[in-house]
Amino acid sequence: MSERLKAVFQTKPAGVTRLISYIMAGDPTIEVSLRRLRGLADHGVDILELGVPFSDPMADGVVIQAAAERALSAQMTVKKTLELVQEFRKTHNTPLLLMSYLNPLLHYGWDRFVEDAVEAGVDGFILPDLPWREGQGLRTRTEKSVGNKLSFIPMIAQTSREQDIEAVSQVTEGFAYVLSRNGITGGEVEIPDNVSVFIESLRDSLQIPRCVGFGIQKAEQVRALAKICDGVVVGSALVKAFAKLDQEGLEEKDLIEQEKEVFTWLASLKQ
Q: Where does the signal sequence lie (predicted)?
């Protein structure tokens, strides 16, 4: 586990809880993605998730699917994503996780990929289509290749089988990505009582912090979740806000000014 990621959960959050944000690499361009990563870090995001575009994203709703399509149309690749991280690392130290499906990473070549990821400054991965227990072989292979420099972040939902939660309960580093609802990313969601009970129950089951995502977009949601978890993930709402700006055809200087308003809105969620 990287020191950058470890430090996030060793210190008290600035605000009601820790904030994790997601954008798609290369949407709409590499240069804009880099500027937005830097802006998010500068506005107090604790952990960055950077999506690797893929043509068949099983866990993503229409907002992130569209972002992936735009990035792929702009010729974004795994290699370019790593180059983007490397450029970000020249100026910022905020922990950064790649969120990706396995297919593009295996096509790149797994051993080469993890070595290049470490060199670029990646702190770990969220892999929605790799169940935790089934991923043991790949995690072992990664550790043999690069040691424990990369964290694999497990995902847990109410539909997770008991044996899967038991497997995650053995994890001692990183954090658990807990789904606030079942299904795909995006959409407005209130946190039902049964979900809150589930999230809280994981406090006793897991040894690692619990961060909640899927549908988080309101300060009220964040304040409610802050009482029962260790961080929140804002993804689709942020991607949608940036996409709306990109569709307005603004001059670059005006676009940059409008982006600042998005950063301010995001930062306000955890105040």
A: none
Q: Examine the residue annotation and report whether 257 is marked as an active-site residue of this protein.
A: no
Per-residue pLDDT tens digits for 196-234: 999 999 999 999 999 999 888 999 999 999 999 999 999
Q: Which CATH architecture has domain 3-9+16-269?
A: Alpha-Beta Barrel (3.20)
**Region of residue 48 (left: phi > 0; alpha: psi -120 to 50; beta: else):** beta
State the catalytic residue, choosing from 3, 27, 46, 49: 49
The per-residue pLDDT for 181 is 63
Q: Is residue 3 annotated as part of the catalytic site, yes or no?
A: no
- Tell me: the pLDDT tens digits for 9-29? 999 999 999 999 999 999 999
- How do the domains of the chain map onto residue ranges? 3-9+16-269
The reported pTM is 0.95
Angstrom distance (rounded) from CA 70 to CA 4: 30
Of 27, 46, 60, 259, the active-site residue reads: 60
Instruction: Provide long-range contacts, Cβ within 8 A and 24+ apart, for 133-140.
Output: 133/163, 133/164, 133/167, 138/110
Mean predicted lDDT score pLDDT of the chain: 94
